[in-house]
Amino acid sequence: MSLEIHDHCGVFGILTREDDVAKLTYYALYALQHRGQESAGIAVSDGRETMMLKDMGMVSQVFSERDLLNLRGYMAIGHVRYSTTGSSFWENSQPIHVNGPRGSVYVAHNGNLVNTDELREELREQGVRFHTTSDTEVIALLLARHPAEDIEEAVREVMPRLSGAYSLAILTETKLIGLRDPHGIRPLCVGRYRDGFAVSSESCGLDIIGAEYIREIEPGEMAVIDHTGLRFERFSEVRRPSLCIFEFIYFARPDSVMYDTYLYHARKHMGMSLADEAPVDADVVMPIPDTGVPAAIGFSQASGIPFGEGLIKNRYVGRTFIQPTQAIRQLGVRLKLNPLVRDIRGKRLVVVDDSIVRGNTTKEIVKMLRDAGAREVHMRISSPPDKNPCFYGIDTATRQELIASSRSVDEIRRFIGADTLHYLSMENLVRATGRPKEEFCTACFDGEYPIPVPDEMRMAKCRLEAV
């Protein structure tokens, strides 16, 4: 479920001479905080010199007012990170900075390469020393070391060599570039801000600073922003668009726009389809907050069953450096969710969530609701069963850990302790997006990976399963 899945990262970049780019980037990263909570960073350029600040922790923990005042310039990129490739320590925080013959190159990356080992070995043979374990450093080194006269030409030459998922914000002394891999697995959009432009993983990062959304950067396309304005250029041939469908289900904020669709509306339609596919006699439709809310509203509207909040989320539970005691650890999900006992006792509940991953958290929630006096608990999931691991930058689980990879729906129902369980069909999930299935990566559900995954990466997942 949503408490167990993490997206890789969020990226942002902006050019403007009419406002403080460090503060604008700070606010945009705040809006993108849901995409990563392990580290945050901002790099700026004044046209001649660059500087950067990054650290472990959330945006509000990393930057102070004084820090932002010291980050002076008219261009900036920012990053929030959740680690998938590379361990969680300071060196892997982003943006990644590399010096080259043309000057500084900063890279903020959302996604995951599948040919990192091959590229890293090539650089090692050239005598390159690495300071991180992330694939982002490989990208930055390839760009910085390329003999091209400008960064745009380096992008044209380097990017086709990369295999995997990447949405990048690249900063040099004089240019800002946003780009997406040829399949567009990870999102990135561009907007207008006063005299300049901005790129963001999601449109909510533009909204918070008052930027006007223009459009998504297309797969295999780069948006180049400099003193001359904004221009788009393709660096790769067109391939099958494969936006991660979990952006629509859970990862992105509901107020973001992707494929010209408000994700809130798509998630509501998922809930309406759930009500049509699996009707049930019940007293209340309740969401698992927060990501289950739009689908629960849709289920309620389609079924006529009243919507109600049965679980209250503690929104101040995030990363902490204070280790919990064993007694606190045993409270498990109660650290994040607390039931409204008077609204649950004696009721037949329809509980709507976006996904079930390992099943342990869902099992705890069902038990919590029963302990609170629920008469019946009917689970409704606004996505198909999640059966396959992701190799493109999503920290889900190994195949063995994914409960749906080895159990039937009824076996999962018995494991979590629900009276009934229903997953949304692939057909109605895709219908809710307003786009054809061919424009999404749905590998987590059907195993159809749009980019071939090397055997060594698959074996690495198997080794994780054996640990």
Short structural summary:
The chain contains 17 helices and 25 strands. By secondary structure, it is α+β, with helices and mostly antiparallel strands.
Which helices and strands occur, and which strands form pairs?
Blueprint: E1 6-7, E2 9-15, H1 21-31, E3 39-45, E4 50-56, H2 59-62, H3 65-70, E5 75-81, E6 96-100, E7 103-113, H4 116-125, H5 135-145, H6 151-158, E8 164-171, E9 176-180, E10 189-193, E11 196-200, H7 203-207, E12 212-216, E13 221-226, E14 229-234, E15 243-244, H8 246-251, E16 257-258, E17 261-262, H9 263-277, E18 284-287, H10 293-303, E19 311-313, H11 326-329, E20 337-339, H12 341-344, E21 348-353, H13 360-371, E22 376-381, E23 394-395, H14 409-416, E24 420-423, H15 426-433, E25 440-441, H16 443-446, H17 455-466
Parallel strand pairs: 15-25, 18-21, 21-22, 22-24
Antiparallel strand pairs: 1-23, 2-5, 2-11, 3-4, 3-5, 6-7, 7-8, 8-9, 9-13, 10-11, 10-12, 13-14, 16-17, 19-20
Order the strands across the largest sheet as they lie in space. Answer: 4-3-5-2-11-10-12
What CATH calls the topology of the largest domain is: Glutamine Phosphoribosylpyrophosphate, subunit 1, domain 1
Instruction: Please describe the biggest sheet, giving its number of strands, its sense, and whether it closes into a barrel.
Output: 7 strands, antiparallel
Number of domains: 2
General form: globular
User: Measured on Cα atoms, how large is the radius of gyration?
Assistant: 22 Å
What would you say the CATH architecture of the largest domain is? 4-Layer Sandwich
Number of helices: 17
Structural class: alpha+beta
- Within CATH, the superfamily of the largest domain carries the name Aminohydrolase, N-terminal nucleophile (Ntn) domain
Distance between the termini: 23 Å
Give the mean pLDDT. 91
What is the number of strand segments?
25
Unreliably modeled segments = 1-7, 319-323, 463-467
Strand content: 25-35%
Report the helical percentage: 25-40%
CATH class of the largest domain: Alpha Beta
